[in-house]
Amino acid sequence: MTTVDLPLLPLGPGRDLTAERGVECPGDLPPASDPTLVERARAAKEALGDRVFVLGHHYQRDEVIQFADVTGDSFKLAKDAAARPQAEYIVFCGVHFMAESADILTGPDQQVVLPDLAAGCSMADMARLGQVEAAWDALEEAGVADAVVPVTYMNSSADIKAFCGRHGGAVCTSSNAEVALEWAFEQKPDAAGGAKVLFLPDQHLGRNTAVLQLGMSLDDCVVWDPRQPNGGLGAEQLREARMILWKGHCSVHGRFSPEVVDELRATIPDVKILVHPECRHEVVTKADLVGSTEFIIQTIEAAPAGSSWAIGTELNLVKRLASAHPDKHIVFLDKTVCYCSTMNRIDLPHLVWALESLVAGTVVNRIEVDPDTERWALVALQRMLDLPGRTSRD
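Now predict its structure.
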């Protein structure tokens, strides 16, 4: 991963290609060392035909995205895979929790492949099942568990989704988090002191949704730190809280700062700040627009020519938007331009290896969720699907 700390400048005609342009890294990703990889990938896909269905998350490299049959956010892609029962193999160019969701939602005869098992998600890894079970025990000891409904973000492992399913909770995406929280608070109408939500694993999405969409105050939110005894919270704090936020965050969205927002407003005339709700609260409150990955894409597509945008989300997507919309000035909302180290793991050599292995009759890096975990994760997912105004966008 290359990081370069240089001034941000908008893309546009007459640019100096030797300088930082807002979305380009000097020493950027090199081309594939084997010039035949593109042709090998095409040949393998053609040989497999309808037996394979390749999914590409928006945050993936262009060299991989070009081979995706569909692109999108994690839950949309998992549903797309479920809608292709004729495909024996689902090759998911994304990260581990996404491949798990695809395995949960697809049929028993379909096999899900993750080309590189190192492609994980740092946010999802911040909430381990043992930690969450220990937190629930502590909530029971504090006498508040009966009032708590767990809600987990789609960006979580299958066993965390299953935990929520077992304990009367649900899954949410960044598009329907508001509706999911409203539903959760309605589940415990008779709880002493009112219902509470344990929100996993991204504290920022939980806080931003509760405060900016449901009208709560920051004082209604407490942060549960799994590395501290009893989460670092006293029983009285737990009793008074409405939102118990897990101390987790996205390593990309968490790095954007309010200072850079101020700097960009001072240096780029009429710039619009567009960010994902996984960003910190102080960044989101300074932004012009906040929304999911699909919302960000749609906003840029609808923006007028000549408009200027600073986007706070993963760099591969920002670069792709800048390339697709040369009539707009688009920059990355950070001076240090770098990729998500895990979202960027799937590269062309791994994809070719996975596809050629399938052609040879060998299934590599299969992702399988055990039946009990799958059962309860499906319960939590179905509760989300049953929400009014549901959406499949994260």
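Residues 124-251+374-385 form a domain with the Rossmann fold fold (CATH 3.40.50.10800).
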